[in-house]
Amino acid sequence: MEGPQCNDETPCISCIRRGENCLRLVRCNRVPSIPAMPTQTLLPSSKTTDAVVNLLHLKLFHHFQTCTYLTLLIAPEVWLQALQLSFQFEFLMNAILCVAARHLAILQPEDLAYPTAAESHLCRALSLFRHVLSNSFTSIHIDAFIATSVLLQYEVWTSTDFISCRDGVECFDPSRDRIFTLSSGLKQVFLETVPLTYDQPSVFLPQTACNGRDKLVPAAQISNSTLAKYQRFFSYYRPLGLEQLNIPLPFTRGTDLATSNAWQDHVPEIQDALDPIRDGYVPIITHLCLILSFLPEARLSDSIDAESPLLLGLGRYIFTFPVLCRNLFASMVQQSDPHTLLLLYHFYRAVRILLPKGEYWWAHKRAAVSETVLKKWLTSEIAKQALNDIPIHEYDDLYNPSTN
């Protein structure tokens, strides 16, 4: 029993004296066990002079586990697993704090502490992640690896460092944009890591197969003729014109539907024979066609809105767009190839329109800024090339959608 003579011990001294069962012991035994906190300092690295968990770290961690993780497209319970793993893997913890800081920086732009914290934790996450991958590649925890990779992808989505300001004018420098190079690098490491960790249980691996396309394709009902028109409209061999900055083409739906094979990336048999246009540029037109089909201008009967069940699939497909792009396409972006940047312009325009600003906080700023500066750059580039290119009307028979 438990009475007025009970002290703070369990079992209490009164019950021991009377030889009775102590209810306090029963209640304590019913309390769920709480995982022990790690004994080593996690944030920052214990090897540094400032190895102290401060109030900002706690605030960032709390914000991630109560708010940020709900906006990251993957099932919430999976991110809760990542939070548990973060107490074992310092690179994952720093990636979590980095993304939480980016989220808070957008919610509270007046507080400059958050961007600074994000940069600091990003540097730590990258440094620790690279060290682990280079030293214990075969023993890395697969879910810690995937969670960190995904979080780094969110972080780079929030970056607009490739936009600089000169004399009050925003300038676009794709060579400084890390989104395609990081995606390519993480994809390569992922493909090398998974076979070495196939025997590990994973809650993240099933999520990597969900890029949203399986739900979007049946809803879009895009015809083969529409796909063909898109390929002609964005043909790499077509001279650029201002009309290509508008919504490309109307969609033909419900008849002669494109098969599932049309949406799969072609994998060349001989890697050494990769062609930048065929294997890098052309597949992106197909990916873009699917995304643009959900724009309001496309007159889709069940248009995407904040309540649409398709929004999650669309968000995932947009998020993985840089991952779907091959190195060949990334190289063309880095080289400021005009046709490639035209595709990016339409991609970012669609992202701005289709993804709600609040819930998809990680995408909106990049999309809005990129759309603006790319349109200015392309308009200027088209004007420069106008005197040298063959007039677009001479290609009317070749590219006019009505001829198909």
Explain how this protein is built.
This protein has three domains: about 1-35, no CATH class; about 55-210, no CATH class; about 215-404, no CATH class. A two-stranded antiparallel sheet has the order 1-2. With about 400 residues, it is mostly helical. The chain contains 18 helices and two strands. About 55% of the residues lie in helices and about 0% in strands. Strand 1 (about 165) and strand 2 (about 170) form a beta hairpin. The longest helix has 25 residues, at about 360-385.
What is this structure, in a nutshell?
With 404 residues, this protein is mainly alpha-helical. It is 53% helix and 2% strand. It is globular, with a radius of gyration of 26 Å.
Helix tally equals 18
| Morphology | globular
Report the biggest beta sheet as strand number plus sense, adding barrel if it closes.
2 strands, antiparallel
Report the count of strand segments.
Answer: 2
What is the alpha-carbon Rg in Å? 26 Å
The overall number of domains is: 3
Q: How does the helix and strand content classify structurally? A: mainly alpha
Distance between the termini: 87 Å
Write the element-wise H/E pattern from the N-terminal end onward: HHHHHHHEEHHHHHHHHHHH
Arithmetic mean of pLDDT: 79
Uncertain ranges: 1-5, 23-51, 390-404
Helix content: 40-55%
- How are the strands ordered across the major sheet? 1-2
- What fraction of residues sit in β-strands? under 5%
